[in-house]
Each structure stands twice: as C-alpha cells, then as structure tokens.
Amino acid sequence: MNLHTTIADRLLNAFPSAAYGLPALLQLSEITETTDVPTAAVECTARPRLFVNPEFVATHANTPEKLVMLIMHELHHVILGHTRLYERQSPLDNVVFDAVINAMLCWMFPERSTRALFTDFYDHRHPVQCFLRPPPRWSHTDYGPPPDALASPECAELADLHRRLYSEQGVGYDELRQALQTNGIAQELPPEVVLLGDHREQGTGSSSDGDLEHRAPELLEQVRRIVERWPQPPNPIVGRSMADFLKAVKVVPTAPSKRGQLRALLRRVAGRGGAQLRRGPSEREHMIESPLPRIDRRSAVLHRLGLRPIFYRQALPCPRPGRGGERVHIYVDVSGSMNDVLGPLYGAVLDCRELVHPVVHLFSTVVHDLPLAELCKGACASTGGTSIECVAMHMQEHGVTRAVIVTDGYVGRPGASSRETLQRSRLGVALLGRATHRDDLDGVVDHWIDLGKGTR
Fold it and tell me: pTM here?
C-alpha cells in the first residue's frame, strides 16, 4: 500500500483531525517516506513536504490517535521554530520545548488513547524521558504519584516542577530550562532519548530556521488556522499558550527620514486633517495588560492562591479627543521578519507622537500594549510570529475605530469575524520591510503607504 495514501487516510479518518484542519495541511504538503528523519519533520519551503519515518510510525505511532498527536507535535515545532526563543538551540532547549509541547497536548487531548504516544514511547523511570510524558496514573483531574525517576527525596524540587508542568499551574520555558540545567539534566542528550518532531540543524529548511512568512507563507497560514481550531484552556496557563512565547527584546530607536509619510497617513486616518489634539483637563483611563508586575486586586488574589499572573492590569490616563480629530491607535508589527527595521520604525512612531494614542500596540501572535514612554526606552515583546487575528480582536475589545498598522504585510488573511471588525474601522497600513505584500489585508484597508525597506 502506498505510504502517502496510508498516512493521509489515517490522518483524515482519525477522530480529531478533520475537526482541527489537518486535511488542508495534507493537501498543501506532500507526504514523503524517509528514514532521514527520526520521527517526522516539515520542510518549510514554498512547496513544503511532510517527512515521516515509516519505521517509527509502524512501531510507535501505529494508531490513528498516536499518528495525529505526532503531527500535532510537529506543527508546534513549526511555530516554535519561527519564534526562535533562543538564537542557537542546544539539546537542553529541545528537551524543554518538547516537554512543554507534550504537556500542552496532554491537556488539550487528555484521553488515554491520545496521550499514549508519549506514555508508551517514554519511560517514566528515566530522569530525562519522564519530563516528556505525564506520570503513569495521570488524568486531567488527578496528577497521581510522580514518575519513578523523581520519587526519591533528593528529587523533590524536580518532582514539584514535573507536577506543575502537568497540572493547571504550568511551567514556563525559562523556569524549566534553568531547573534542568541546575540539576545537570540534559546537558548532553543521552542516546536513548529520542525527541519527537523537527530538531534538525538550522540551514536545512527545517522549522527552526525561522522567517517562515517568506520561506513558506502558505504553510504558516495553514498552521495558524489549525492552531486556532485546537481547544484551549479557558484561562491562560503558564507554558500552555502562544502568549507564553513572548520574548522581551531591546530596540534602539533611530532617527527616521520617512516620518513625513507616516505622519500624513496618521492625519488621514485621524480625520478632520488630523490636527494635534487640544490638551485639556478632561481625561479618561485606558486599561492595558502588561507583563510588568503591579499590585492590583486580581494579581493579589492569584498570588495568595499560589499562581503567577502572566499579565497585570493597569490604568493609563488618556486625553479625551478634542475638535482637532482623534488620536490614532497604532499597531506595530514586531514579528521576526521586522527585526531589521524596528529601530527606525520606533523612531518614526515617536516622531509622530502628537497624533498617536498614548498606548502603542505591539503585535505578533498576541497584542502587547506599551505606553509611549516605554517605547522611548526601546521596550519590545514579541512571540516572533504574526497574526492579524489578534489585532482585530484587540480592536473589537477596546472599541478602536481608527487605526494604523505598520507591517510588512505578512499577517495572514483575517477570518470572517475579524474582517468585519477591520472593515468597520478607519484603517491605514504602512508597509515596511525587505519584502512586502498587500494580499493578506486586501479589501479591509482604507489608506495604504509604502515606506520601502526601511524608514530611512
């Protein structure tokens, strides 16, 4: 029987696959049998291929549920490789990535048959493998006893880490990485530890190479649509959502020369000529969520419960609009493909601050609200990916009706609901970057400008 037909049919017939968008991925990707990859890998090119090791599938992914979990694990690697949390991934980084992915998938699909890929393949008595699977008697509502490898008193700290990893509390990447490094685990990956998914070296077309908007835009778009359909916990859990890939970076604002074009776009979107707002005593508060710790009722309660908030709410004063027009909300694309132009881009935004809302919205796959004062200091937080869906959702939640998006245009096509939100607003887009296009936002933008490869 042909491998392509066999694996495609099994994926199409597996119970969650059709519901979560895998058929579209299979139509986009050619399934190739090869023993050059240990388990499975996606070649992230314009014509992507899904490499599957038939020997691994026959031995370890021989049920529909296991096969689907293997592919879902690899889709997470596409996203993680794009975010590039660490510039050069070590064996320890790869163990951490896989541990969090596997814990995430166990919570999304807690049935015994689906998590069996991890529990059958990894040994809970091994000090590294035990982090790649839940404990033997784990369930969605009961963690049960810890894995045998962590049962001794001297492993109490690691046992607590494992319990939180596979519980509602969750564990972040940095915390897990530091704990494993401190305890000497996974400094060198033991030969008996085989990681799932794509861990090939960079430069091979693997998902770890990043820059997927340009190397494999259709693949990335399909992966985004698939991930959006996956079940998510009702409340964000540390290490369990795309928001946890948020990475803080520092940007040095530089003096731009094309600020006049951005200023003109802001005036057109602002309306009535976009004149500077009349300052007056009347102000209102704008609530934002920030990773910077602040004391409020919600965070205080969470701390008392032993939980660590991901974001803290704070109120910022916002001048009420005067007769000269509204201040424009500006959404700045801080995905990986924009790294080369963020310095002059920050400078251009700051040079137009009298037209800009006092809170700038940085977006990747999540929106991060940033006061202009923090933008002056070069603060930036990004997941590395890009999605227009988070922008539309933010605009709807905060009642934004006038906005300018600065991006290279590779943001994914908006869904029906997001398209309606964007079309109801007065929207301008400033295209910026080494490669730009308008296809994703075609039909929802009122005003376009092209700033070229940089704002200089």
Answer: 0.56
Q: How far apart are CA 348 and CA 275, in angstroms?
A: 18
Partners of 371 in the β-ladder = 359
The CA distances from residue 279 to 144, 374, 429, 449, in Å, are 61, 21, 27, 29
Angle at 279 between CA 277 and CA 396, to 5 degrees: 55
419, 444 in Cβ contact below 8 A?
A: yes
Which among 292, 405, 391 is positioned nearest to 356, based on CA atoms? 405
pLDDT in tens, 65-87: 898 888 888 877 766 554 444 54
Residue 16's contacts (CB-CB under 8 Å, 6 or more residues apart) are: 68, 109, 114
What is d(CA 109, CA 48) in angstroms, rounded to the nearest whole number? 27
Which of 42, 22, 21 is closest to 32 using CA atoms? 42
DSSP class of residue 192 equals T
Whole-number Å distance between alpha carbons of 417 and 363: 19
- CB-based burial of residue 293 (10 Å sphere; 0-12 exposed, 13-18 middle, 19+ buried)? exposed
d(CA 112, CA 258): 58
Q: What's the pLDDT score for residue 403?
A: 96
The whole-angstrom separation of Cα 88 and Cα 210 is 12
Q: What is the pLDDT of residue 280?
A: 39
Structural domains of the chain in order of their starting residue, each with its CATH number = 3-233 (no CATH), 247-282+320-450 (3.40.50)
The tokens describing 164, both together, are: 């939180």
The candidate with the shortest Cα–Cα distance to 428, out of 407, 413, 410, is 407
pLDDT at residue 180, as a whole number: 86
pLDDT of residue 177: 84
- Mean pLDDT (the chain) is 76
